[in-house]
């Protein structure tokens, strides 16, 4: 068993304007750096053994701030926890996206489905947990992975059987979601805002 905490990256200018980023590589803004520092302080209250992230700049920068605060090296980028590909929806304002496509589960030309995102992210979580178990068995590690709102939403949707997150619930920048990852399961333990 591995405790794995998914942290949403800090704010970017596109988050602020409610524009869908997807794979567009937007850096953190000053508020986003403050989000990352606040997340790092909250996470410092516990014991953690490794920090990983998506390869996108906003996640890497958030993860580096957290790793520095925890005195840990930043691990390799994990491509399968990168943000959802939004296809034609990428770059749109959220209200325009919803008006055009209906909801986050809609089929959008060129976009990944929420199910596909959840599948790849959960597979990545299992790979990270397996590597952790190889390093420290029988002692369980606590691992932090900085990812994206769409990825975390897809994982929560998958492991909750579609009951979470609730409609309209926003996953805040800097929020964290702790999971227990075992060889055959992923279980949501808690969600908390870090700010």
From TrEMBL:
The keyword Oxidoreductase does not apply. Its EC number is 5.4.2.11. The gene is gpmA_3. The keyword Isomerase applies. It comes from Microbacterium oxydans. InterPro entries: His_Pase_superF_clade-1 (IPR013078), His_PPase_superfam (IPR029033), PG/BPGM_mutase_AS (IPR001345), PGM_Phosphatase (IPR050275). Substrate binds at residues 8-15, 58. CDD domains: HP_PGM_like. Keywords: Glycolysis, Isomerase. This is 2,3-bisphosphoglycerate-dependent phosphoglycerate mutase. GO terms for cellular component: cytoplasm. PROSITE patterns: PG_MUTASE. Gene3D superfamilies: Phosphoglycerate mutase-like. GO terms for molecular function: phosphatase activity; phosphoglycerate mutase activity. Pfam families: His_Phos_1. The active site is at 9 (tele-phosphohistidine intermediate), 83 (proton donor/acceptor). It is an enzyme of class 5 (isomerase).
């Amino acid at each position: 068993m591995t405790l794995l905490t998914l942290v949403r990256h800090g704010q970017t200018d596109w988050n602020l304007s409610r524009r869908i980023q997807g794979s567009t590589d937007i850096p953190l803004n000053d508020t986003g750096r403050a989000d990352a520092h606040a997340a790092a302080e909250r996470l410092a209250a516990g014991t953690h053994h490794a920090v990983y992230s998506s390869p996108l700049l906003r996640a890497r920068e958030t993860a580096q701030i957290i790793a520095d605060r925890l005195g840990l090296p930043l691990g390799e980028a994990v491509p399968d926890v990168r943000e959802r590909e939004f296809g034609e929806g990428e770059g749109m304002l959220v209200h325009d996206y919803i008006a055009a496509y209906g909801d986050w589960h809609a089929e959008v030309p060129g976009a990944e489905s929420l199910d596909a995102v959840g599948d790849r992210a959960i597979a990545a979580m299992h790979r990270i947990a397996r590597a952790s178990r190889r390093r420290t068995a029988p002692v369980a590690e606590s691992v932090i992975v900085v990812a994206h709102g769409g990825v975390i939403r897809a994982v929560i949707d998958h492991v909750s059987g579609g009951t979470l997150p609730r409609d309209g619930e926003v996953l805040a920048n800097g929020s964290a979601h702790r999971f227990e990852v075992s060889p055959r399961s992923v279980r949501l333990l808690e969600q908390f805002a870090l700010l």
